[in-house]
Amino acid sequence: MSSPNETAHPRVEIYDTTLRDGTQSVQVSFSVVDKVRVAERLDWLGIHYIEGGWPGANPRDVEFFEQVAAAPFFRDKVVAFGATRHAKRGPDEDPNLAALLAAGTSTITIFGKSWDLHVRDALKIDLEHNLELITDSVAYLASRVDRVIFDAEHFFDGYRANPDYALACLKAAAAGGAARVVLCDTNGGTLPDAVRTATAAAAAAVEAPLGIHAHNDAELAVANTLAAVAAGATQVHGTINGIGERCGNANLCSVVANLKLKLGVDCVTDAQLADLKSVSGFVSELANMASDPRLPYVGDAAFAHKGGVHVSAVRRNAATYEHIDPALVGNHQRVLVSDLAGKGNIHIKAAEYGINLDASSEEVAGILAHLKQLEADGYQFEGAEASFELLVRRLTGRWHDPFRILAFRTINERYDHASEPISEATVRLEVDGRMEHTVAAGDGPVHAIDRALRRGLETFFPALAEVVLLDYKVRVLASDKGTESRVRVLVESGDGEVRWGTVGVSANVVDASLAALVDAFEYKLLSQEKLRTEGVGHEEPVGEEV
What we know:
Elements: E1 13-16, H1 32-45, E2 49-53, H2 59-68, H3 74-77, E3 78-83, H4 95-102, E4 107-113, H5 116-123, H6 127-142, E5 147-153, H7 155-161, H8 163-175, E6 180-185, H9 192-205, E7 210-214, H10 221-230, E8 235-238, H11 252-262, H12 270-273, H13 276-286, E9 304-305, H14 308-316, E10 334-335, H15 343-352, H16 362-376, H17 385-395, E11 404-413, E12 422-431, E13 434-442, H18 445-457, E14 468-476, E15 487-494, E16 499-506, H19 509-534
Parallel strand pairs: 1-2, 1-8, 2-3, 3-4, 4-5, 5-6, 6-7, 7-8, 9-10
Antiparallel strand pairs: 11-12, 12-13, 14-15, 15-16
Helix pairs in contact: 1-2, 1-13, 6-8, 7-8, 9-10, 14-15, 18-19
């Protein structure tokens, strides 16, 4: 979607630092192969500059630049990052600058101090000497590569403390031949009005195009980025999903969507914008982080509707509670089911499953009443839509359980000579009048009962061997009852093509786990039955593609 006033805004370059600043985030670590794969996705997304890392800092970044050099986008997009020269060395003697040049990129970004406090207390040099470092470092690199980008570290703090000196640092970079001068809110504590004022002052002080690099310590990184663009910045820095040092960087998923859809800045194509959610999930997966469902634009909850009033309205017109069409960013509308649901929620969810129910029918009323009772007992279906589909089909006579669990038992023993307890599970089940009795050991009672259940069921349903447990969560309900509390178990399963969630609730964690596992296996069988009787593509799958 293009805004009617997009021609009123200049082109804005998107500069991604996921592979450098993003890797400084807590619990984030990319292998070299991961970094190359992320760079490839960023190229497809239309990112103009991909900051690959600091080649003088660690062997992994050196290896990344060696491997990514074969990529077709390397010359145009990949950026090496480093610092200005050491105060006691000339540019041609500085190993940091030499490492940047050895990376082989056509663009190099270096940062320098622009806050007098840092110059005096961190570098321990006089203010004029710092200006010399900036100018001759930029000039040395600019004579050897296509372009140099200068990051004015702590610019907004510096501008607040000593505006003349902060602007002098920008002028020093421009004098050295910087192709872009980037204003950094390194501590992430500046407010949007201050960003706008300081950016306007910088635009008046230097002719070089300006950029903005905002951190999120006050949860204002995206707002500050947009404020800088409004004041004249034409390059925006950030990371996918906002990962980064401390509280993170400006989230490029939000920045790009806001630029394109709200400000009419045609920074990426429509097709690239529609890949935004996919890229967000891809980066989370490689970073081994659970995707945040509440991320604007790309989160699973971004266009999810739960309250009955909301659902009733979006059924008539999605614009009533959605600020954009979710498809523009690769997302989709979700209707959730809970004790807040109305008949409209049930009607819509049933339609998603290919079940046509009259919203005013007794069937819908019965499902809603059953749902509210289950949620009062501790069930939650927002992350377990496979269990909810099975529930709807069972209550409407459209699904009959293909097997029955007749009995189960778990035994946990620990011996003095053993380092770990021993768990064993026994399951008795029935399929079409045939009985199966299986026993299995495992790493804990839940693992044991999972293995025993599989051993019995795969005899009758070989396709269940494809089902893999992807995630397992236990939530204690009414914890004031201590060890007597009921628990809710959420299980996420997949078969290599789709993934789905199921739920079980009980005062016994093994019983709750068994209920969730049974639903997981039944959903796989249901999916097979739907493919057999209705054909591929007739219904939208409950799970997401893996």
